[in-house]
Design brief:
The protein is mainly α and 102 residues long. 87% of the residues lie in helices and 0% in strands. The protein contains 4 helices and no strands.
């Protein structure tokens, strides 16, 4: 083996060792970053949930109609009917998402 080939092989081994070290450091940094962003992931998941959408729609209705007492009274009545309506919600959601509905 020539001196140049030996130097290149030695350099290759050094680069592979450095690459492995950098991968380990990157993995550690990624783990720390993942724990920091876990809160943001939970917030985004909550924002995408149906509950937040309902609250936003209810807030918009409250602002548009300007009759909070009437809306709260209606919401209270719906809350009493919630146990009866809950089994039908998956069917209603499927109907709502269906593009073929009339």
């Amino acid at each position: 083996m020539s001196a140049r080939a030996a130097a290149l092989a030695e350099r290759r081994l050094a680069l592979l060792a450095r690459s492995e070290q950098l991968r380990l450091e990157l993995g550690a940094d990624l783990g720390a970053l993942a724990t920091r962003l876990q809160v943001a992931d939970r917030f985004v998941a909550l924002a995408r949930s149906g509950l937040v959408r309902v609250l936003v729609v209810a807030g918009a209705a409250l602002l548009l109609f300007g009759r909070p007492r009437q809306l709260f009274r209606t919401a209270g009545r719906l809350l009493l009917l919630w146990p009866l309506l809950r089994p039908f919600l998956p069917d209603l959601a499927a109907w709502w998402r269906n593009a073929d509905r009339p």
